[in-house]
Amino acid sequence: MNERIYNVVAELPESIRIQDQKAFFGSIHATLNHILWADKIWLSRFLKGGYSFDILTEDTVAGVEGQAANHRHEIESNFDRLEKERMKVDQDMVRWIGEGFSESDFVKNLEYQNTKGSLHSTPIFSVLTHLFNHQTHHRGQVTALLFQNGIDPGVTDLIYYLRLNSN
Fold first, then answer.
1. Nearest alpha-carbon partner for 56 in 76, 42, 74
2. Which residue has the higher pLDDT, 167 or 138?
3. Percent of the chain with pLDDT over 90
4. Which residues does the record give as a divalent metal cation binding sites (predicted)?
5. Would you list which residues are annotated within the binding site for a divalent metal cation?
């Protein structure tokens, strides 16, 4: 789904991509940056927690060092580089989940510090559910901004995507 959204956003003039549209993160570009920032923060927690499976690396989570509490951290100001990094992280995540985890891993707990520095221990399946739900939430914001600019990004429902990929 990220690829679909990025393909639509890539067609926009930069002026619209970076325009403050009074959304939570301001612009489409800033919202996409936030999604990538959050994914990298969570992946760095898995890396530190011993769940990298030699798939996640420091390179996967680069760009968020010292930025765990900065929800507005800009990983990349250039859209093409942001898109390239998003696609790389998505490929790493698909491989990491598909090849790294066993079924028994999903019920184990991930111990981590949240953005306020508090320690937590949460089942991995819950963390992964949150990670993908967070992406969905903010992609919905991007979709709303696209519609406000007269652009229909197409169907973004998960069930549609699953059906499309099952054929």
1. 42
2. 138
3. 83
4. 34, 134, 138
5. 34, 134, 138
Question: Domain spans of the chain?
Answer: 1-165
Is it the case that residue 68 has pLDDT exceeding 90?
no
Cα–Cα dist 92/148, whole Å: 32
As given in the structure block, the two tokens for residue 123 are 């089942």
**Residue 104 token pair:** 């028994």
In this prediction the pTM is 0.94
Options 3.40.718.10, 3.40.50.300, 1.20.120.450, 3.40.50.1820; CATH of 1-165: 1.20.120.450
Binding residues: 34, 134, 138
Model confidence over 105-156: pLDDT tens digits? Answer: 999 999 999 999 999 999 999 999 999 999 999 999 999 999 999 999 998 8
Long-range contacts of 139-144 (CB under 8 A, 24+ apart): 139/1, 139/2, 139/5, 139/35, 141/23, 141/24, 141/25, 141/31, 142/5, 142/9, 142/28, 142/31, 142/32, 143/5, 144/23
